[in-house]
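Protocol check, entry for the methods section draft. Step 1: assemble the input record (protein sequence plus ligand SMILES). Step 2: submit for complex structure prediction. Step 3: store the structure tokens unaltered in the notebook. Ligand used here: zinc ion. Step 1 record:
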Amino acid sequence: MRRRPGPPTSEFEQFQASALFCGRCQTARPVRERLLLVLPDGELHEYLCTVCGSSVGTRKAEAEPPPVLLS
Ligand SMILES: [Zn+2]
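Step 3, stored output:
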């Protein structure tokens, strides 16, 4: 475990994730999220079981749409 100086709140919030059902553990487990792919229109994130490390799901984060210029 590494400690970094500074307020840990923002990092802690990023680290926190909801629990998802893990097929290998056969129960709901807390998951961590990692960036899997960067797509042209967003990012694909993968949820990994924090207990066994297997992938339990993905989430696609849509990219911010470009601002519409009104003429
Ligand atoms: Zn698991």
